[in-house]
Give the backbone structure.
Amino acid sequence: MKKAIFPGSFDPITNGHYDIIKRGASLFDEIIVAIGVNAEKKYMYTLEERKRFIEEAFKDEPKVKVITYKGLTIDLCQKEKADFILRGLRNPADFEFEKAIAHTNRSLSKIETVFLLTSARTSYISSSIVRDVLRNGGDITKLVPPSVMNKK
Ligand code: ADP
């Protein structure tokens, strides 16, 4: 069984993340979306909200599971028996950043990181842009899955 962990903050999940998870689900038997908990970081949405947005967005996709975690992603991979980490690439900055993390993870474990190139129509989307638009009263409908818009 080929399992991949897709780690991130997902504050909130965007159409960019959604696209990578959907495409990842066609390559792997299971995608575990893992929301990292970092006590030092301030989030716009609570952990419960971030988890619920992703669960709702993938309620009809049995291959996608959502969990939260603290600590190293490679330790989580071991715990979940996942041999792969899935990441998305948008631009050269993502590549440089991801390259360092992937090499580090590879030096500490046997975990392979698999990269999917962002789709053209979601390549410009990031959670930080979504938060900026929201803070300034803008409309994020086109940037995020409906579950984020349906916040209760
Ligand atoms: P982090 O908090 O680690 O930056 P994010 O939640 O922003 O994590 O992103 C998690 C993963 O999703 C990363 O691999 C990131 O490159 C990828 N990602 C984010 N936005 C997009 C997008 N628009 N297209 C493709 N991948 C994306």
The pocket of adenosine-5'-diphosphate is lined by residues 8-10, 14, 16-17, 20, 87-88, 90, 94, 118, 122-123, 125-127 (CB under 6 Å).
